[in-house]
């Protein structure tokens, strides 16, 4: 794959046309009783747009690779996810408003349930956020420092939280404690490099995990453990508005997505909790930006939970909001996902993601609806997600001709 950042900054130009990127997280699915979630969902508005515009499929990284949310989103924004590998910790930390300085390390954490040394639920039943806050308050009080390194805890949504390590000689070259699936033991963090700082950091991470387990066990109700992943520092990355000459706004309810878009320089609105609040934010700010990223989380959450009907219902809810987006007449609307999360698979998967691009310059795919099988027939074909941003810029007339 050619890195778009080697080409696009040389030919991008300012313009007045507005772009909307609507992301249904984990959109793609697999058949259950013969049909995927998108095929079961009643989506008359998306079906009509698909039949009159461009459709296709996208691979977030490349075929066969199952992406995390971070690299999948970097691809959506035109950053090569192989070149720019960013840890989940820093994204989550920025998303919850944690202050991170040079030399700090961050990690994303999950409260979990452990039985006989085995993680039985990595998300602790998606505990209420208010329960999370009470637990984090206690952990902040009882685990403040280890080996001369200060430890700070901050709540996220439901089962998620963030920790920040601040001290001397820390290294992000250490492994996670999260086994990434139920039925496995919590892992011991180990140095990826032989640096002394990596040994120190992995030791601190393991001690945090041990101390937290002891504190949570004393409370005597779930959750009773933590897992940590994405241990990372603040990276050096080009800014989206500078590269693409766009005034960009991020509209998302979940911290990680706010964190990532803040990291690449988008304006981020905090305090949004519902899809309705997201749409109101979009409409209120429509005249002030050229580019809007709108993120819908629950399609992914229902997929991970194996809730086929819940995911179908969320897709239908988004479809009902399409007229409210289109009534503002965006010049380009793209509807897609960052990756597939089939409810039958209960996890992110490697399957390509459907993409719909609506603009006055779109070719008519003539498909019968917005689904995996129909989008496979579309004029876009099957492309790397990395090239989505160049397509959106082209449809909004923001790219000059390349070469003589």
Describe the structure in your own words:
With 404 residues, the chain is of the alpha/beta class. The chain contains 14 helices and 15 strands. Helix 5 crosses helix 9, helix 10 packs parallel to helix 12 and helix 11 runs antiparallel to helix 12. It starts with 7 loop residues before the first helix and ends in a 9-residue tail after the last helix.
Helix content class: 25-40%
CATH superfamily of the largest domain: Alkaline Phosphatase, subunit A
| Strand arrangement across the biggest beta sheet | 11-10-12-1-13-14-2-15
Q: What would you say the CATH architecture of the largest domain is?
A: 3-Layer(aba) Sandwich
Name of the CATH first level of the largest domain: Alpha Beta
Secondary structure: number of strands: 15
Total number of helical segments?
Answer: 14
Low-confidence stretches: none
Largest sheet: 8 strands, mixed
CATH topology of the largest domain: Alkaline Phosphatase, subunit A
Order of helices and strands: HEHHEHHEEHEEEEHEHEHEHEHHEEHEH
N-C termini distance: 23 Å
Mean pLDDT value: 94
Oligomer: single chain
Q: What Rg, in angstroms, do the CA atoms define?
A: 21 Å
Provide keyphrases for this structure.
404 residues; alpha/beta; Alkaline Phosphatase, subunit A; 2 domains; eight-stranded mixed sheet; seven-stranded antiparallel sheet; 20% strand; globular
């Amino acid at each position: 794959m050619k890195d778009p950042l080697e080409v696009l900054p040389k030919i991008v130009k300012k313009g007045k046309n507005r772009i909307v990127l609507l992301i249904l997280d984990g959109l793609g699915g697999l058949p259950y009783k013969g049909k995927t979630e998108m095929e079961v969902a009643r989506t008359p508005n998306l079906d009509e747009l698909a039949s009159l515009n461009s459709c296709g499929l996208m691979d977030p990284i490349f075929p066969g690779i199952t992406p995390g949310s971070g690299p999948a989103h970097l691809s959506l924004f035109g950053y090569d996810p192989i070149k720019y590998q960013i840890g989940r910790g820093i994204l989550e930390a920025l998303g919850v408003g944690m202050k991170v300085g040079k030399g700090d390390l961050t990690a994303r954490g999950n409260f979990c349930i452990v039985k006989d040394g085995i993680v039985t639920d990595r998300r602790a039943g998606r505990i209420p956020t208010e329960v999370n806050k009470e637990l984090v308050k206690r952990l902040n009080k009882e685990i403040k420092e280890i080996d001369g390194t200060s430890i700070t805890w901050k709540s996220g949504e439901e089962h998620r939280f963030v920790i920040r390590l601040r001290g001397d000689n820390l290294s992000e070259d250490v492994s996670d404690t999260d086994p990434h699936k139920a039925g496995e033991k919590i892992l011991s963090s180990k140095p990826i490099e032989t640096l002394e700082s990596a040994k120190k950091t992995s030791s601190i991470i393991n001690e945090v995990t041990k101390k937290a387990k002891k504190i949570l066990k004393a409370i005597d109700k779930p959750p009773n453990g933590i897992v940590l992943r994405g241990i990372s520092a603040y990276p050096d990355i080009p800014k989206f508005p500078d590269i693409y000459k766009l005034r960009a706004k991020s509209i998302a309810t979940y911290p990680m997505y706010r964190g990532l878009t803040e990291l690449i320089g988008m304006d981020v609105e905090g305090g949004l909790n519902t899809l309705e609040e997201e749409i109101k934010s979009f409409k209120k700010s429509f005249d002030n930006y050229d580019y809007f990223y709108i993120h819908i989380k629950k399609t992914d959450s229902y997929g991970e939970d194996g809730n086929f009907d819940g995911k179908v219902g969320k897709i239908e809810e988004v479809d009902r909001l399409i007229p409210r987006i289109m009534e503002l007449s965006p010049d380009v609307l793209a509807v897609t996902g960052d990756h597939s999360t089939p409810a039958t698979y209960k996890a992110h998967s490697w399957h390509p993601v459907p993409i719909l691009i609506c603009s006055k310059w779109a070719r008519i795919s003539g498909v019968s609806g917005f689904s995996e099988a129909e989008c496979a027939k579309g004029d876009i074909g099957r492309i790397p997600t990395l090239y989505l941003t160049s397509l959106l810029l082209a449809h909004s007339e923001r790219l000059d001709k390349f070469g003589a």
